[in-house]
Write a structure and sequence with these properties.
The protein is of the alpha+beta class. 26% of the residues lie in helices and 19% in strands. The protein is built from 11 helices and 19 strands. Strand 5, helix 6 (258-268) and strand 6 (276-282) form a beta-alpha-beta unit.
Length: 555
């Protein structure tokens, strides 16, 4: 009990002491503040204003006086002895000191003298200080020689970011396409005449591509095509030696995939140190259709029916015009890569106008690959390029909507053979003999509706009277056999599917001597399968080129 009492007394004493200390601290702080206020110097009384106005010694007025000061030698000397000149580094402090002192006539003259001296010293310091060079005029920089950008030498096999579909319809300013003249003089198909001659930088799409360089550029249609951004990748390999410029184009129809992989493999495997000339590859020409997995442009037009294009025409015509001017006309030769269309497939083959000597010479360089003689649709890229003086062939291989590795390998082999035989990419490979050309072709059609079952293989040789396939009615089980009316080779055929009467099922290449082939007046061959005109008998007693309705499913 006593201990408890002692503890309680101790707690009470501690609480009382804390309360007293808390009350004492604010009072002590107030007392200290009052003492500091009493000890602080009181401001001096301001003198009464004199009748005569005196200039106010403001810092701004002193600065104005320094700016308007005359040389020291011309300043009138006052009775007061002038102070020595203030160095430039002390000029601001002197101005503030002069402004802080009371105003008087003598002091005003001293301040003016000091301001003049300070300004004079500052001028001398500015005169001796090094001056920064003035920036060059932007127009002079733009017009300076050698301002063309140079392509970066990259490894085409490196992985890069690809354009996303959202960027396909981005608005861009219309900058105007550059009109390029058509190729004049002899067309260079071979690099043997320029063997071991060092190459030079070549300008392509506004960029200088140095020798021994592989690079990736972008082509964007511009003139009369504003409002849509279609940055199309273009692969370029400029060799170390001089030679022709070969162009490879693929996916003019957006659903044809085999040609895309052919361009990639050919360009990525090239070593520019061994290359004679330049190879330009456009893996996806119709990027708008490719992004939609469609053969056509967004407006349902076939891009390969609008070359060489029109800058004031439809979307397809403007796109074709820009591509033809910017890319195709810069090349010496062109290989346009395609597949079959509308659920049909083609054996790896060339389509070429063998009546044109330059085209026939060009087609003979591809080695062991069938060649079908056809001029093609007049508005196709191949026909337009030939008219412009650029030897061009179409390489057909496989079917649409599929990536067929074996077919891709056959196409790559044909293109590599071309570059070996014309001296662009020499090697020690043994060349196969060129396959004979098929100067005629015909489509054999189904005469009943039902499901088509083929009995022949693609590329197989057939004779007149051979069974090609049959059409079976799934309801009645009625069978109609399709018989070949020609001796030849199956260059293309329809996939097994449901067909209607008149459906073109088998494309037969027919061998015929060159001397018997003549061009029909006003001949317009369809390159794609849009079979035109009235139906005519399949067999003819006269041996002459087939009519447009017997041609098709090309390019």
């Amino acid at each position: 009990m006593p201990n408890y009492t002692i503890v309680m007394l101790f707690v009470w004493a501690l609480g009382a002491t804390s309360a007293a200390w808390a009350q004492a601290v604010p009072a002590e702080h107030e007392a200290d503040a009052q003492i500091d206020a009493e000890q602080a110097p009181q401001p001096e009384a301001q003198p009464k204003p004199q009748p005569k106005p005196q200039p106010k010694p403001q810092v701004e007025q002193a600065s104005d006086a320094a700016a308007e000061a005359v040389p020291v030698s011309e300043v009138p000397q006052a009775d007061a002895k002038p102070e020595p000149a203030v160095p430039a580094k002390q000029a601001p402090a002197a101005l503030h000191k002069a402004a802080a002192e009371p105003s008087s006539p003598g002091a005003t003259q001293d301040a003016s003298q000091q301001s003049a001296d300070a300004a004079s010293g500052q001028e001398r310091a500015d005169a001796t200080a090094p001056q920064a060079p003035e920036p060059a005029d932007a127009a002079d920089v733009a017009d300076a020689p050698g301002d063309t950008p140079t392509a970066e030498n990259i490894d085409l096999r490196d992985v890069v970011d690809s354009p996303v579909a959202e960027q396909l319809f981005e608005t861009k300013e219309d900058t105007g396409a550059i009109e390029q003249p058509a190729i004049e003089g002899d067309v260079r198909l071979s690099a043997t005449e320029a063997a071991n001659i060092p190459n030079t930088a070549r300008r392509f799409l506004g960029v200088d591509v140095p020798p021994s360089t592989t690079t990736r550029l972008d082509w964007t249609p511009s003139k009369s095509f504003a409002g849509m951004a279609v940055d199309t990748p273009v692969l370029v390999a400029n060799g170390a030696f001089d030679g022709p410029t070969l162009c490879l184009t693929a996916a003019i129809h957006g659903d044809e995939l085999n040609g895309i992989e052919m361009v990639r493999r050919v360009l990525y495997d090239l070593e520019p140190e061994k290359l004679h000339g330049m190879v330009v590859g456009v893996p996806i020409v119709n990027l708008l259709g490719f992004s939609r997995n469609s053969r056509y442009l967004p407006d349902r037009r076939d891009l390969n029916r609008y070359f060489p294009g029109n800058p004031r025409g439809s979307v397809a015509s403007r796109l074709a015009h820009a591509f033809f001017q910017d890319v195709i006309k810069q090349c010496d030769a062109l290989v346009d890569l395609h597949t079959g269309s509308f659920y049909r497939t083609n054996i790896t083959q060339l389509r070429a106008d063998m009546r044109n000597p330059k085209v026939a010479e060009f087609a003979s360089l591809f080695g062991d690959i069938p060649v079908l003689n056809t001029r093609g649709n007049g508005s196709s890229l191949r026909a337009a390029a030939v008219r412009a003086g650029i030897p061009t062939v179409t390489l057909e291989a496989g079917e649409p909507m599929r990536m067929q590795v074996k077919v891709v390998q056959e196409g790559v082999k044909a293109i590599n053979t071309l570059m070996e035989k014309n001296g662009m990419y020499p090697s020690f490979s043994l060349w196969a003999k060129p396959s004979p050309a098929y100067y005629r072709s015909a489509w054999v059609r189904a005469n009943a509706s039902g499901i088509l079952f083929s009995a022949v293989k693609l590329g197989g040789r057939v004779k007149k009277g051979d069974k090609l396939g049959e059409v079976i009615n799934p309801v009645t089980n009625d069978k109609k056999v399709i018989i070949s009316a020609y001796d030849g080779r199956v260059l293309g055929m329809a996939l097994d599917q449901f067909v209607l009467p008149g459906f073109a099922a088998y494309h037969i290449g027919i061998r015929e001597p060159v001397a018997k082939v003549t061009a029909a007046p006003g001949e317009q061959l369809d390159d794609d399968g849009e079979l035109e005109g009235e139906e005519k008998p399949a067999m003819r007693e006269e041996r002459k080129p087939l009519s447009p309705e017997e041609e098709g499913y090309d390019d």
